[in-house]
Amino acid sequence: MDSKPYTFDIKLPGGIPDHYDNHIERRLSSMRGQFLDQKAYSERLAREDTLLYEVYEFKRPEIAGELLHGISIVHPGKVGNEYYMTKGHFHTVLETAEVYYCLQGQGYMVMETPEGEWSVEPLRPGSVLYVPPRWAHRSVNTALDGDLVTFFIYPGDAGHDYGTIESQGYRKLVMDTPAGASIVDNPRWKSPEERHA
Ligand code: PAN
Ligand code: ZN
């Protein structure tokens, strides 16, 4: 792979880089079991396989020393009362961190450790979020009228573990309530004790 320095531009509003190596689209069908309101999920999926979020990546070798980076764009909307969100994941190499820089929109990063410690941090244009090693992370777009655009950067050897979140869920959900966007307990979350029982 070419190892010369390079630059790219991110035009705002929008957030799509002027060049990139890979474009990923994640649709409703890839989020089975993730949204709390499963009836709303199935009804929507029967109508259309909605595009929930997109990632524009720059390809680098997936080795320690490299930094993988790109743009994540979560579109606005809800399934039931739950805002569109990313799948979320732990890094396979748990002891690897990540930095997110919010460029546009508003939302939250929902985070959790394997021990069940949780944190939900706001994302606003200009906010920089440090996700320490060991914390699973999921971005949620709480603005119903525009995209949540973030720039991310993480170690080349981190890898992605989606399966753990798919089976246990996150401890906290971000829901649209009469009081606005609210952080609520996930009734389906399994504590580490329940998981190992
Ligand atoms: C990001 C995420 C991106 C999409 O690049 O991969 O926001 O979210 P999911 O990977 O959970 O679908 C990142 O955290 N990389 O490690
Ligand atoms: Zn990550």
Shape: globular
Unreliably modeled segments: none
CATH class wording: Mainly Beta
Count of helix runs? 3
From the alpha carbons, calculate the radius of gyration and give it in angstroms: 17 Å
Could you give a short account of the major beta sheet?
Answer: 6 strands, antiparallel
- How far apart the termini lie comes to 47 Å
Secondary-structure-based class equals mainly beta
Number of separate domains: 1
Number of strands: 15
- Overall mean pLDDT stands at 97
What's the order of the H and E elements?
EHEEEEEEEEEEEEHEEH
Q: Are any ligands bound, and if so which?
A: 5-phospho-D-arabinohydroxamic acid, zinc ion
List its traits.
binds zinc ion, binds 5-phospho-D-arabinohydroxamic acid, Jelly Rolls, six-stranded antiparallel sheet, 197 residues, mainly beta
